[in-house]
Amino acid sequence: MAERAWQVPTDRTEATARLDALVREHRFTIAVVFPLVGAVTLLASAEGLLPPPLAYNPVFVLFGTLVMRLPLVAGVFPLLDRKATLALVALTAYSYGIELYGVTTGWPYGEFSYGVDLGPMLFGAVPLGLPVFFFPLVLNAYLLVLLLLGRRADSHLPRLLATLATVMLVDLVLDPGAVAIGFWEYEVQQFYGVPWQNYRGWLLSGTVAVLLFDWGFDRAGLRRRLEQCEFMLDDLVSFVLLWGGINAFYSNWVPVALAALLGAGLLWTDRFDFDLSETRLGRAVWR
To answer: Any stretches that span the bilayer, and where are they (predicted)?
Structure first.
C-alpha cells in the first residue's frame, strides 16, 4: 500500500533496498540536473547576476551537495560496520584538524582564505560540512580505481598510487574552478590561481584517506556493491558536469581536459549508462 512507503524500515536490508530504489527512481535528476543547475547558479552568483540571499546561498550549496552525494551514500550504506564507521570518524577528525591547521598556518595547502559562506563554521574557521565536501572526492577516486584496475587493485601499492593519481586529477579540476567562482583564494597563485603546494597537501590528505578506507572498508563488499549499484559512481558524474562546466565557462582548458579524462574513465567502466525510461522523468516523457 502507499502508506507503507512512509513506514520506518525494520532493518538495514529494507533501508538499503529503499535507498537504492530512491536513487534509481531519481537518478537522472540527481546526477545530471542537480549539477547543471548548480553550475548555472554558482556562475550566476560569481558574475553578480543573483542578488542576496540567493547568491552563494550556503543552504542551497550544502543541500545540492548532499543530494549529489546520495548515490555514493546509498552504495556504501550497507557496508558501514563498526570498523568502517571508526575509519570515517578518524578521517573526520583528521580533516577538521588539518584544515584548521592549514587555515591558521598555511601548511600543507598554502596560504588561503574562504571567500564565501559555505555554511556553519567550526571555530569560526572551517566549514562544518567539510567531510561532505572532502570524503566523497577521495572515495569516488578509490572506487573508480577498483573498477579500472580490476584484480590488479588487490595489490596494495598499485591501488594506493592509482588512487592518489586519481585524487590529484580530481583536485586539479576542483581547485581552479572553486577559485574562479570565489569559493576560496590563495595568496600564491600558480596553476589557475592555485599554488603547487596545495597539491602536495592533497597528496598527504589523500594518502591518509586512502589508507583509512583501505583499513575500514571490505574491498570485496565494495566490489559487490559496485556491481549491484550501477549508480554508485554517479557522484563523480555530477562532479565532472559541475566543475567541468564551471572551468569551461572561465576558459580553464587544462582542468576541462582533466575533467574529460575523468569522464572517459567513467565511460570506460560503463558508468555513463543512464536509462531515462527507468526514471520518473523518463516515464513522464514517454507518456
So the answer is: 28-46, 58-80, 87-109, 121-149, 161-184, 199-217
- For 94-132, the pLDDT digits (tens) are 999 999 999 999 999 999 999 998 889 998 899 999 999
Place of cell 577498483: 146
Number of domains in the chain: 1
The rounded distance, in Å, linking the Cα atoms of 117 and 59 is: 10
Residue 210 is placed in which grid cell? 586512502
What is 83-110 written as a DSSP string? HHHHHHHHHHHHHHHHHHHHHHH-TTT-
Q: Which letter does DSSP use for residue 186 in this model? A: E
Calpha distance 186→170 (Å, rounded): 18
Write out pLDDT tens, residues 174-193. 999 999 999 999 999 999 99
Which grid cell is 27? 537518478
Widest distance between CA atoms in the chain: 60
According to DSSP H, which parts of 11-155 are helical? 12-25, 27-28, 34-46, 58-76, 82-105, 130-149
> Are the beta carbons of 172 and 244 closer than 8 angstroms?
no
Backbone angles phi, psi at 121, to 5 degrees: -110, 130
Rg (CA), the chain: 19
Name the residue range of residue 142's domain.
Answer: 2-286
CB 239 within 8 A of CB 137: yes
pTM of the model: 0.92
Which backbone phi and psi does 185 adopt, to 5 degrees?
A: -140, 135
Of 261, 257, 114, which Cα lies nearest the Cα of 181?
Answer: 114
User: Residue 110's CB: how many other CB atoms inside 10 A?
Assistant: 20
Q: Which amino acid is it at 283?
A: R
Q: Give the position of cell 576560496.
A: 184
CA distance 105 to 91: 20
- Give φ, ψ of 8 to 5 degrees: -70, 130
Is pLDDT of 134 > 60? yes
